[in-house]
Design goal:
Length: about 850
């Protein structure tokens, strides 16, 4: 066989193209598809297509004007393969027809112009497809750079004028893959006009049969995985030619086409225009209805029958087998050249396999969790689409074999759920202070918040299936005026229930979720912000609003079973009412009983049962709190509560441990302490100030530093002394009896202590009449006791003041009573504690006896 009949024409064409300094090109060297790897969007908007990435089908002759953009668009992919092979076939016809093949071959390579006009796949057959190819062919000698080649080529083609080929079968193989057969095409008889400028219109139908499915699968998978660097196709045929009545013999031809990686088309862009999920007709199933569109950029027309696919998702690891979750089927698809293609997909999900919902090894998430997390954070979630192994009966076997052997990764555009939760509120709030015995990493080492959560969430329009929220948990940042105050961490699942609310004209359907959270740790991270919140609560008049940025985990029950949505973004406002005006004054503490626990020479440790009123809408639990007790700016002692529960309204018998220790305030504190006790025992209106300090709540330095900026001043707790009137219950000395002739007096004392005895070691008292007139003086230096309850003092000597008006009043009152005032300095002793106090009493009822 002559060498010119067996040499690859495309390689010669490439040489000729290089020799002409790329001044001429043929249609078979033009890329057909932009190599786009853009992730599809689910926003309902069509993608923009850049027309500038298309290149001319063929180079323009020298001096020609720039064609319009539509002429510069390349014929893509399928049309390029078809027209490339057609061009190689035509060139082979020309070359083989002449005696001087080298010159004519170069002429044919450079002068041939193929202008494809349409490629339509008319039908899908049992073995392949029936395709209709339409194109225009002519020779343009002006594109040939060598004058000698141009003259010889024009002369030869003028003489031959026309060439005709017989029906020819072309086999296309893959030389780089063991020469596997990709497919075969039957090209009918062609009659070609060869004179320069004469146009031949091709319009024929060819049968294209699929080749080895395994070879197609290998190429498809390498392309999808990005490992296909180039694709080399080899077409071979036995070509029979004649010119007029003159036969030119049968020639074996072999042509190669090479596609570089950057010229191989990527997956087409598509937009999902509708995505709807609803409960299926059978229990335990759901139906998905998806509509998507893609632009067909090619001059290709075909009808695609219904096809069945399997939908899979990734497993725990890349090496794991993908998990089958749904079966889908497409509608009949009508593809028109250069137009949008709309595809309707119906999918059914019958159950969720265990491999999808089980937690992955060395992880806390399942494959389903990972998939939902990507989707809910707006990231493309990768699905895998594979042709079904059990297709519809109308699907040709060769299509089913190809589709079922190829798995295509499809990025499904995510949808961020920011703003999905419309409202997040917390009511009926209960606070628990930290447990002093908890370790640093123990949740109990933080303040706890309990309350009723009410969440209002929008239901995405595509979710038209029944769902019921059963449990929730969350981690949230708590902010005040855009500054982070702390973190709320609800790690344990909390029971919840949900109610679906129908949508209105202005708003879509919503889901109301209610849950009672119990003991959610609140970690205060910024003491300054926390102090601002406390200040607003104590002294503000308008409700403050805490902003919550949360990630919520939600357990929902659906037709398919129980699902867990993790880290759903949510935000909301928690309105917190400030304390009502007069709250501090309305607390009104009252001491029910006192018990002395310990004494020293300077201090008294005691326990008291206190009654208070909580006027706020909040409740609290206090495992341990210690505060300083102050008066006139001096620390006089401390008060401690443990395991204390504060409810709304009256609170009775709250156990408070206090330590009276004025030396904490220095020498000045001792004097202030003496005066405070003296005024208190005298029934004066006294007050104490409570102020947190650095160690008020163990382990909570930030909170304590913030709270230490605030003082709470309360009226000193009233002692619960027996008596008939408030005035009577406020006096320790109830009455007195004066013995005129013996010059003595006895007093009835009421001790505030229920379990301990007071001792009076020294008394220096003066009785007054009419507030100013002295009656007499009592000086007594022998100790006597004042046991719990009522007691009568020993007879105390009275040194009368006979020259005073008060003395006359006493004489006149013999056998009767009168009201007296008293002023006394008393040395008091309680255990080891001793103190000198003063006492002023008014309106003491005194009886006078002989």
């Amino acid at each position: 066989m002559p060498e010119e009949e067996t040499s690859p024409l495309l390689s010669a064409a490439m040489k000729g193209k290089q020799a002409s300094n790329e001044r001429a090109s043929s249609s078979e060297s033009t890329p057909l598809l932009s190599n786009s790897t853009d992730t599809p969007r689910y926003d309902g908007a069509a993608d923009e297509h850049d027309g500038d990435d298309a290149v001319s089908t063929r180079s323009q002759p020298a001096g020609s004007s720039t064609p319009p953009r539509s002429d510069r668009k390349s014929w893509r992919w399928a049309s390029w393969i078809a027209m490339g092979l057609l061009g190689a076939f035509v060139i082979a016809i020309i070359v083989l027809a002449f005696i001087v093949p080298e010159a004519v071959q170069e002429y044919a390579q450079q002068a041939t112009v193929i202008e494809p006009t349409n490629l339509a796949l008319e039908s899908i057959t049992t073995n392949g497809v029936r395709a209709r190819i339409q194109a225009n062919f002519h020779l343009d000698g002006s594109k040939v750079s060598n004058d000698h080649v141009r003259r010889v080529g024009r002369a030869a083609t003028w003489v031959a004028y026309q060439l005709e080929s017989a029906e020819t079968k072309v086999d296309v193989r893959l030389p780089d893959y063991d020469n596997v057969l990709l497919g075969s095409a039957v090209i009918p008889s062609l009659l070609i006009n060869l004179r320069d400028g004469d146009v031949t219109n091709f319009d024929f139908v060819t049968e294209i049969s699929a080749g080895d499915v395994e070879g197609i699968r290998i190429i498809a998978n390498e392309w999808l995985e990005g490992r296909l660097e180039q694709l080399r196709l080899n077409g071979a045929a036995n070509l029979s030619l004649k010119s007029g009545f003159v036969p030119l013999g049968t020639h074996a031809i072999s042509e190669s086409l090479v596609f570089e990686a950057n010229k191989i088309p990527a997956m087409p862009k598509y937009n999902i225009t509708r995505f709807n999920v609803e409960d299926g007709p059978m229990n335990g199933s759901m139906l998905a209805d998806v509509s998507l569109t893609a632009l067909n950029e090619y001059p290709v027309e075909l009808d695609i029958p219904e096809l069945a696919f399997d939908i899979l998702v990734p497993g725990c690891a890349i090496s794991d087998q993908s998990i089958l979750v749904a079966q889908a089927a497409t509608s009949d698809v009508h593809v028109h050249p250069h137009s949008e293609v709309e595809v309707e997909v119906k999918a059914v999900i019958r159950e969720l396999p265990d491999t999808l919902t089980n937690v992955c090894p060395d992880s806390t998430s399942s494959p389903l969790d990972n998939l939902l997390r990507q989707y809910m954070h707006g990231e493309p979630a990768t699905f895998f689409v594979r042709g079904s192994h059990h297709p519809d009966g109308d699907t040709p076997k060769w299509i089913a074999d190809i589709l079922s052997s190829v798995t295509v990764p499809v990025p499904f555009p995510g949808r961020t759920l920011d703003g999905l939760i419309r409202n997040f509120s917390l009511t009926d709030v209960h606070f628990s202070l930290p447990n002093p015995n908890a370790g640093p990493d123990d949740p109990d080492s933080n303040p706890m918040v309990s309350g009723n959560i009410l969440v209002t969430a929008d239901i995405p329009s595509e979710m038209n299936f029944g769902l019921d929220v059963t449990d929730v948990r969350a981690t949230a940042d708590v902010l005040y005026k855009s500054k982070k105050m702390g973190e709320l961490n609800l790690q344990k699942w909390q029971a919840a229930n949900s109610t679906k609310v129908k949508g209105t004209e202005d708003e879509g359907p919503m889901l109301k979720i209610q849950s009672r959270i119990i003991d959610a740790p609140l970690n205060v991270t910024d003491g300054a912000v926390f102090a601002s919140v406390v200040q607003a609560l104590l002294f503000g008049s308008a409700p403050i609003r805490l902003h919550v940025d949360a990630l919520v985990d939600i357990k929902v029950h659906t037709t398919l079973g129980n699902l867990t949505l993790k880290e759903v973004p949510a935000e909301g406002k928690i309105p917190v009412k400030p304390l009502p005006k007069g709250t501090v004054g309305s607390i009104a503490p009252k001491v029910g009983s006192l018990r002395i626990l310990d004494t020293t020479s300077d201090s008294i440790t005691l326990q008291a049962l206190v009654n208070v009123t909580n006027p706020t809408p909040y409740t609290a639990h206090m495992p341990y709190v210690n505060v300083h007790v102050l008066n006139n700016g001096s620390i006089l002692g401390s008060a401690t509560v443990e395991d204390l529960d504060i409810v709304k309204g009256p609170n009775s018998n709250l156990l408070v441990t206090a330590k009276w220790n004025p030396p904490m305030g220095g020498d000045h504190g001792r004097k202030i302490g003496r005066d405070l006790i003296s005024k208190y025992l005298s029934g004066w209106n006294t007050s104490i100030t409570l102020r947190p300090h650095r160690h008020s709540i163990p382990g909570q330095r930030i909170i304590c530093d913030a709270l230490s900026q605030f003082n709470v001043t309360l009226a000193a707790p009233r002692l619960d002394l027996p008596g008939d009137t408030p005035e009577e219950r406020s006096h320790f000395i109830r009455d007195a009896t004066f013995h005129f002739f013996s010059s003595t007096a006895t007093f009835t004392l009421v001790s505030p202590l229920h379990f301990n005895t007071l001792y009076l070691d020294f008394v220096n008292a003066t009785a007054l009449y009419n507030h100013t007139e002295p009656i007499g003086q009592i000086v007594y230096d022998l100790p006597f006791s004042a046991p719990p309850g009522k007691s009568v003092t020993p007879k105390l000597p009275v040194d009368w003041s006979p020259e005073s008006v008060g003395y006359d009043a006493i004489r006149k009152a013999i056998g009767g009573t009168l009201k007296l005032d008293a002023y006394a300095d008393v040395d008091m002793r309680l255990g080891n504690w001793k103190e000198t106090l003063w006492y002023q009493g008014k309106g003491i009822g005194a009886s006078v006896q002989l």
